[in-house]
Amino acid sequence: MPGDPVLSVQGLSVQFRIGGAWRAATRGIDFDLAPNETLALVGESGCGKSITCASILGLLGGEGARVEGSIRYRGREIVGMPESELEKIRGKEIAMIFQEPMTALNPVMPVGEQIAEAISVHLGCSRAEAKTRALGFMERVRIPAAPERYRDYPHQFSGGMRQRIVIAMAMACQPRILLADEPTTALDVTIQAQILAELRDLCANLEMSMVFITHSLGVVAAIADRVAVMYAGEIVEIAPVAELFAAPRHPYTQALLQAIPRVDRETVTLRAIPGQVPAIAEFGSGCRFAPRCPRASEACQAVPPELAARGGPEGHRVACLAPAPVRERAS
Amino acid sequence: MSFRTTVFATACLAAAFTQAQPATAAEKVLRVGMATGDIGKIDPHLAAGTQDKVVVGWLFNGLVRVKPGEATPKFIEPDLAESWTSSPDGLSWTFHLRHGVQCHQGYGEFTAEDVVYSLQRAADPNRSAYSSDYKAIKAITAIDKYTVQIDYSEHVPSVLGFLINFQGGNMVCKAAAEKMGADFTKHPIGTGPFQFKEYAPQQELVLEANPAYYEGRPKIDRIEYRFIPATAARDLAFEKGEIDIDYGQTDKTWYSRITKLPHTKVVAVEPTELYTVHINESHPPLDNLKVRQAIAYAVPRDALVKYRGEEVTRAAKSVVPVGYLGETDATPLFPYDPAKAKALLKEAGYPNGIKLKVVQTSLGTMRDTMEVLQGQLRKVGIDLDLQIVEHATFHAQIRKDMSDLVLYAAARYPIADTYLSQFYDSAATVGTPGAVANFSHCNVADAEIRAARTETDPQKQLALWATAQKKIIENVCSVPVYELFNVWAISDRVKLGYELHGALSQGIPIIPATTIE
Amino acid sequence: MPRPAGSAAGRLARKLWRIATANITIEAGIVLFLLVVAVAVFAPLIATHDPLDQDLFERLGTPSTEHWLGTDSFGRDIFSRIVFGARISLVIGLSAVLTAMVVGSFLGVLSGYLGGWVDQLVGQATNILLAFPSLILGLMVVAFLGPSMINLIAAIALATVPQFVRVARAPTVALRDRDYIQACRALGFSPLRTMLRHVLPNIWPEILVMATLWLATAIRVEASLAFIGLGVKPPTPTWGGMIREGFENILTSLWLAIFPSLAILVVVFALNLIGDGLRDALDPRLRKDE
Amino acid sequence: MARYAILKLIYSVPTLLAVLTLVFVLTRVIPGDPALMILGDQASPQAIAALHVQLGLDRPVWMQYLHFLANVAHGDFGKSLVTGQSVVDLAASVLPSTLELTIASLVVGTVIGVPLGAWAAIHRNSMPDALVRAGSLLGLSLPAFVFGILLLIVFSVQLGWFPVISPTGRVSALENLRALALPALTLGILMAAYIARVTRSSMLQILGEDFIRTARAKGVPWRMVIRRHALRNAIIPVVTVVGLYLGVLIGNSVLTEMVFNRPGLGKLIVGALTQRDYPVLQGLMVLYTLLIIIANLLTDLAYGIFNPTVRLR
Fold first, then answer.
1. Is B123 domain-assigned?
2. Do B106 and B213 belong together in one domain?
3. Touching partners of A (3+ C-beta pairs < 8 Å)
4. Which residues of D touch A59 (CB under 8 A)?
5. Cβ separation C247–B386 shorter than 8 A
6. Distance from CA of B234 to the nearest CA of D (A)
7. N or C: which end of chain A has fewer CB within 10 A?
8. Residues in B touching C251 (Cβ below 8 Å)
9. Per-residue pLDDT for D230 more than 80?
10. How far apart are CA B226 and CA B241, in angstroms?
11. According to the model, what pLDDT value does residue C114 have?
12. Where residue B55 sits, what CATH number does that domain have?
C-alpha cells in the first residue's frame, strides 16, 4: 500500500458511564487506513464497530461518553480536538454513511438541500452553486430525474434511493475518508449489490479511503481490501481480505467464517458459536472471547492478548495467545 | 421561523394601525368612566340602569326641568315649554313651547307634535317602562305648532313632576323615533345639549356637542363615556388622568382614598337610593308579626351606615326616602336590639332560629348589602340561604314570590306617593294583574295611600301619607336599611359652571357652560 | 381468572407506592398536596376565627397578630377563610374529576367496544365538548343552571369527561378484535365486563396522570368561575371569590388578592408536580432513555 | 389544499348544527324572562305579554327552533335584547380586539416558549432544564387573572409604563400596542409555559434521532443543527398543541378582558350570560364554534406546512 496512512487509530478506547461507573465499550483499537484503501470492520452487533466509527468523527463527546487513545487524521489528532475544528473535518475530510436510510435523513428538509447543506457549510459557496454541485452528485449516485426531485422530501423516496441520497450527501465535499456504517443492511438484496458497486466505483473515482462496517462477511469479500474482525469491543484479527478468508487465525474469526452458509463449497457444516457475547459490564480483564473459546487456557483469562503478527505475515495480525498456525496458502 | 415571526409582527402592526387615527388637538373632550360592562338602553322611556339614565340626562329635555345641579321639585323651571297655565280644577294644563328648538342631527324643529308623540309613547306600556305614571292622562292635544294641552281624568299629586326631564317626562323627536323604531334605543334623538355620535360595545359611547342647542353650543365638544366595570381599574384610570369623571363606589374606603387625591372633587349626588328589605308576609313564618319584628330588631342600621361610610350613606328614617314630599320620621323605625330579636323569635316559637330563602342579584352594592345583612341576621339565629342570580333573573324571581326577603334599592320621583303606591299598595302586589313592586304583600295602608293620591288639600294629603307610613312600619311590611348616594370623583380640570347638589339623572349634568381645561 | 381480592389490592397498593416514590417531583407534589388536604380536613382546628363572622368595624384590616392575613371588606378573617376555602376547592375539584373519570372511562370503553352509532355519537359529542374551552363550558353551564356546588361540579365534570373518553376509547378499540376477547365472548362471559378487566389495567396509569392534571385544571376553573362571579353562593369562602373581592379593593388592600392567589398557586402547582412526575415515571419512552 | 379545507368545513356542519341545537335548547331553559330584560323592572304585565308576541316567544318551541335555524342560515342572529344592536354587528365590533389579543399572545407564547423549551432540552438534566421545567409548571399553575392582576399592579400602577384601561377609538398604533402589551403578556406567558413543555419533550425526542447525527456528521455546526434540523422537526407537534390551545386561549381571554377592561368576545359572552341576552348568546356560541373550527383548520394547514410528510396536494 503506497503512502502514509490517512487515518491512524491507536489504543482507542471508548467508555460510557453506566450506573455511575465508567465502562469501556471498546478497548485498545489499533488500525491504519491507507489512501484509497477500503477497510472492513466486521463483527456482531454491539461489538463496537459503530462506536469506533462515531469516535473517529468526534461524535461521542458530551456527558456520559469518554474517548481515550489516539485517532490521527493525516497527522492531526482528533481525540480532544475542539468542536469547531472537528466541524471542519466532518463531512469535508471524513464523511459518514449510516445504516438506516429511513431515519438518517431530516424528514422536513428537501433532500437536495440536505446535500447542498454540507457543500455550503464547508465550501462557503452560494446557494445556486451548492445546488448545482448537489445536483451533480445526485446524478452521480444515479437518482433519476434529479433536478425535478431536488425539492422532494425523504418520504417521497424508496429506501434504496434514500441511501443513494445519503451517499451523495457524504460525497458532496469529496472527503478523503468515507465511514460507511452498514450502508446496505436495511436494503433489499438486489439494491444492496447496486449500492455496493456504486460505493466501490465512487471510492475508486474519487480516490477515497473507506472504513466499511458490516456484520456480513459476504459484503466484506465484495468491497474490502483489508478486514478487521471485532469482538466485544476489540479487534481480534486484522488482515488483507483474501488472507483472512483463506487463513483465519483467531478462533472467533474461524467460527464466524464457519457460520456463513456458502454455496461455493461442497461440505457444509454450519456451526453456531456457543455462548453469548458478554455485556459491557461483564467484560473481564483477559481475552473477552475466552469464555466461548474452545482453545482457551488459563493465561487467556489473565491478560488481554495483543494484536500481533504472531508468526504470520506483518499485514495479518491476530489477538490470540493460541492462534491457528500459519498455513501455506495454496495458490 | 423568521418568516413566521415576520408574518405575526406584520399582522400585529396592521391591527394596530387600522385603529390609528389622529385626534384633533383643540377639541375639548370630557372622558367619563362608568361602572358598567356596557350600556343598556338609552331610550329615555326605557332606560332603567344608572349607566343609561346618566346618558339620557345629557341627551334629552322635558317640558320643564329641575334646575341643573338640583334634585328636588322646588327647583322646577321652564325647559322646552317657556310657560304654562292650568284650569282651576287642575285637570287641564296648557304648555307654550319655546320656538326654534332643533332636534339632533337634522330631524327638524321640536314642535307640539313631538310633545304629543312623546307623552303618548311614555304612557304606552309597550313602549315605555313608566306608563303607570301617565295613567291619569285623558288626552294630549296639539293646539298649534307651539301649544300643547294635556287633560287629566283625575287629580294627580304632581303634574309638573312627571313632565320634567326625568324618565317618561323626557321628550323624544317624533320623526326620529318613528323612523328608527326599535333602533332608537341605541341611536336616540332628542333636543339636549349633546347628541349621539357613536357606540362601541363594551367600550364606550361617544356624544358630541349639539351645535343647535337652544341654550347655545356646549363648550365641551365631545363626551367619551367609557365602560369600566372594575372599580380599581376605573380609579386608577382617573388617578392617572385617563378619565376626567369617575363613577365612584358608595363606600367609605373608596371615598377616603379618592378624597386624598390632589386636584379632585368628590361629590355625593342626590337622589339617594333607599335600600329596603321587603318581608314577604305570604311566606310562613313571616306571616307572624313577631318574626318580622325580630328581623327589624336585628338590623344594626347605624352600624351599617358607619360600615359603608357616613359620607356616602345615611340611615333610613321611614319606608319613604328622606326628603320626599310627605316623608316623615314621626313613627320611628325599630332600633337595633339583638336580644329582643332573639326573644321575639323564641316567643314566636322559633328558639333555634329560622332559615329563610333569599333570591339575590349579583349586582355589586345590592349583593354586598345583602351579604352584610346575612352576617348580621346570622347573629340572632336568622339564617339566610342566598341564591345569587343575575339581575334579570332576580327581577323575574322576586316577582314570582320566590324569595322570602327582597332587598330592593330604588329612587323615584321624590314624592311619597310614588314609593307608597309602587311598594305598599296591595294593588301593586307581585303576582297580581296590577303588579308593580309590592313584594311584601303589604295591604295595611291601601286606604290612606289611595286617598292621598287624589287629595287636593296638601295638609290632608300629608296627614294621610304619615298615617300610611305609620301603619306600614308598625306592621313591618319591610325594614328600610339605609340610603346610598351616587358618588362621583371629578377632576379639577372640569369646570361644571353651576352648583352641584344633586341630579335626578344620577349623573353629573353637563350644561353648555361646562368646560374642561 | 378470579384472584384473591386481598393480594390484588395489595399489589395495587405496592404498585401505587412504587409510583408515588418514583421521583422527587412526585414526592414533593404529594407532600404539598397532602398538606393542603390536611388543612382542608382540619380546617375547624386550624382556623383562628369563624370564617363567616363579620366585624363591621374591622374592615380591610392589615395583617396583624389578631388577623394573621388581615380582614376582608366585611371584616372577616382572611386566614380562616382561606383555610375553609381549601375545602370548597378540593371538594369541587375532586368530585368533578372523579365523576368525569368514572363516566368518561366508562363511556370511552363502551363506545370503543360497541363501535357503530354509539361510537359515532359519543365521538361527536366528545369532539364538540373538546372544542369548547373548559372555562367557557363551565361558564355556560353555571350561568344556565345557577351557581351551586352541585352545578359547579357538574359543569367542571362535563368539561373534563371528554378527556377521559379519549384516553379510554383508543386502547379499547385496539383490544376489541383480539382473539381472547372474542374467545371470552364465545365462552359466554359478559363482553363488557371482560373489556373493562382487560382495558382498565392498560389505561389506568394514563388515567391517573390525566386525573391529577385535570384536578389542577378543575381547581383553576372553579377559581376562575368564582372570579367571574359564578362561584358557590355566599357567604361560603372560596379562593376565586376572595380574589374577586380583592381585585375590587386592590388599590387599598393588595393582600386581599395576594393570599388566596398564593393558595391556588400552591395547590395547583402541587398537582402539576405530581402529574408531571407521574408522566415521566409512567412514560416508557422517557424512562428508556433516562 | 383548498379542497381539503372545503371538505373539512363541510364535515363541521353537523357539529355546528349540534351546537346550534344545544344553544337553542339551553337558552330556552334558562330562568329569567327576556321581555322583562328589555322592558326593565317597572314594566307592566301587558307590556311583557305584548313583547312576548313580538319576540315570537308565544309560539310553540319547535316553531321557534325552525325559525331560529332559518334565520341563522341567512346569517341573521337577531338583535341584542339589551342594546337592540344586531348580534352580527356586535360580534364584529369586538372580534378584532379578541383576534388581536389572541394573535399577540400566540406570538408572545411562541417567541418565549419555543426557545426556552429548546434550551431546556439541549441542556437536559442541568440547571437550565430544571429552571424551565419549574418555571413552566408555575406558569401553568397560575390562573390567568392572578397573573394579569400582578402585571397590572407592577407595570401599570407601580411603574406606570402601560395604561390601566385600553384606549378606545382613535389612538395611535403605538398606544394600541402599549395597551395590548400587558394583556398579551398575561395570556402569552401562560401559553409560553405550555409551549415550552411541549417543545422540550418534542426536542428531546428529536435530538435522539438519526438525522441529527447525520447532520453533525456532515460537519454542520451544532447551533445550525439545532436550528435547521432539530427545531424544525420539534416544532411540528408544537403546532398541533398550539392549535388545541387556541381554545383555551380564547377561554382565558374572558379573564384577561375583565382584568384589563378590554372589549372582546369573552366579556361579551359573560355580559350576555348575565343579562340573559339570548340572541347574543346564541350568536356568540356559534361564532365560538366557528372560530374553533377555523382554528383547527388553520392548525391542520400549518401542520402541513411544517410537516411535509402530510403535506396535502
1. yes
2. yes
3. D
4. 213, 216-217
5. no
6. 8
7. C
8. 232, 235-236, 257
9. yes
10. 13
11. 78
12. 3.40.190.10
Instruction: Report the amino acid identity of residue B319.
Output: V
Give whole-number Cα distances, D42 to A46, B129, B130, B134, B427, in Å: 88, 5, 7, 13, 14
**Distance (Å) from the C-alpha of residue A108 to the closest C-alpha of chain D?**
6
Interface touch D251/C136, C-beta < 8 Å: yes
Is A118 close to D308, i.e. CB distance below 8 A? no
Neighbours of A201 (CB within 10 A): 11
Query: Looking at the structure, do residues D53 and D141 belong to the same domain, yes or no?
Result: no
Residues of chain D with C-beta less than 8 angstroms from the C-beta of C155: none
Within-domain flag for D10: no
Looking up residue D249, the CATH number of its domain turns out to be 1.10.3720.10
Residue entry with cell 395570556: D187
User: What's the CA gap between D312 and D306, in Å, rounded?
Assistant: 12
DSSP one-letter code for D231: I
Q: Which of D141, D152, D206, D293 to mutate to test the interface with C (most CBs of C within 10 A)?
A: D141
Cell of C98: 372523579
As for how many domains chain D has, the answer is 2
Domain boundary among D33, D48, D73: D73
Number of compact structural domains in chain B? 2
- Its domain, for residue B176, covers 5-11+26-244+493-516
Task: Give the integer Cα–Cα distance in Å for B2 and D111.
Answer: 11
Q: Collect all residues of chain D within an 8 Å Cβ-Cβ radius of residue C132.
A: 247, 251, 288-289, 292
Domain count, chain A: 1
Substitution target in D122, D213, D218 with the highest count of A β-carbons within 10 Å is D218
Interchain CB distance below 8 Å, B386 and C233: yes
- The per-residue DSSP string of B174-188 comes to HHHHHHHGGGGGTS-
Residue B194 and residue B337 share a domain: no
* Chain B residues within an 8 Å CB radius of C235: 371, 374-375, 386
A96 vs D243: which has the higher pLDDT: A96
Q: Give domain status of residue A121, yes or no.
A: yes
Instruction: Test D221 with A103 for CB contact under 8 angstroms.
Output: no
Q: Do residues B498 and B481 both lie within one domain?
A: no
Chain B: touching chains (3 or more CB pairs < 8 Å): C, D
Q: Which three cell numbers stand for residue D29?
A: 331553559
Q: Any chain A CB within 8 A of the CB of D74?
A: no
CATH class name, domain C36-282 = mainly alpha
Q: Does residue A163 lie in a domain region?
A: yes
Taking residue C46's Cβ as centre, other Cβ atoms within 10 Å add up to 16
Q: If DSSP states are collapsed to H, E and C, what string results for A75-144?
A: CEECCCCCHHHHHHHECCCEEEECCCCCCCCCCCCCHHHHHHHHHHHHHCCCHHHHHHHHHHHHHHCCCC
Quick check: D231 and B236 CB within 8 A?
no
Residue A294: inside a domain, yes or no?
no
Structural domain includes residue A133: yes
Closest-CA distance, D300 to chain A, in angstroms, reads 16
- Are C238 and C223 contacting, i.e. CB atoms less than 8 angstroms apart? yes
| Cβ–Cβ below 8 Å for C285 and D31 | no
D 38-57 → B contacts, CB under 8 A: 38-47, 50-51
The verdict on D42 and D160 lying in the same domain is no
Asked if residue D161 and residue D20 are part of one domain, the reply reads no
pLDDT in tens, A200-244: 888 888 888 999 988 888 888 888 899 999 888 888 999 999 888
Rounded-to-integer distance, Cα D147 and Cα D153, Å: 10
Domain interval for residue D63: 15-73
In a domain, B252, yes or no: no
Q: Let me know if residue D5 belongs to a domain.
A: no
pLDDT (tens place) for every residue of chain C, 290 residues total: 444 455 667 777 777 777 777 778 888 889 999 999 999 999 899 888 888 888 877 888 888 888 888 888 888 999 999 999 999 889 999 999 999 999 998 888 888 877 778 888 888 778 777 767 777 778 777 777 777 888 889 988 988 898 888 888 877 777 777 776 677 767 777 766 777 777 777 777 778 888 888 898 888 888 888 888 788 877 888 888 888 888 878 777 878 888 898 998 899 889 888 888 887 777 654 443 33
ipTM value? 0.73
Note down the domain range covering A159.
Answer: 99-174
Choosing among B256, B359, B367, B372, which should be mutated to test the C contact, i.e. which has the most C CBs within 10 A?
B372
